[in-house]
Design goal:
The chain is of the alpha+beta class. It is 19% helix and 21% strand.
Length: 253
Amino acid sequence: MYSIIVVPGPGMEPADRLHLAPGQNLRFGRATTGDGAPGLGIPHSGVSRTAGEIGATGTYWTLSNLSRTSTYVVENPEGAGEHIKVAPGRLAAPVPFEFARIVLPAGSELLSLDVWAPRHDYADRDAPGGPDPLGGPGGEPTLLAFPLDRSKRYFLVLAALCESRLRGEPHALPPTVDQVVERLRPLWPCANRAAVQWNIDYLAVKLRLKPAPDTAASGPRLVGKKDALASLALRFDLVREDDLALLAPGTAR
């Protein structure tokens, strides 16, 4: 069974996806090893001849940086800007992201390739000792940290704020209020600037980014409210890629 899939970037050789089973490694760089082992060629003068190595395990993958001068960055395109840095010479740095983008400095350019890790292990909620977010029989229920109702319009607004990043643009700016209105109008015909802004303010209070207006503590003014909401929602998986189906036509409520 394959544990990870490597998707080469433009101009890399081979251009087809590469599948790695647990225990397999993939060298990448300006020159491949030529010893019969899987290799990914990156024909760019700014990339080391042997730039690095991707290693597959059962439930995660590793990245070794074999260059002498360049730090590599592994981004989570579906997250809130999460990334890890792999310093020159670092071996077998574990990468937990299910979908990741390796960014390689190459002269005046930044090159990238994607890695998918579709196999992750999770505890069985019904098995003895499995996770039980609501508490055991007869015990006190566990309070939810971020209680959100996916049937409410405020969740549509939150999903619209997260949509670009969930679709593979990790550095995308959040949409403007007018853009959210236009995005939601097929689902919410009465949407307007005032209604969307009210839901954004409501979410900021509900997700504890700012105190409620009827409390004594006013707190500092929240700057970049939409970006803060999207970052929090993506960091804690409050909005997932599956939730984007709620933005599809025919799901009006």
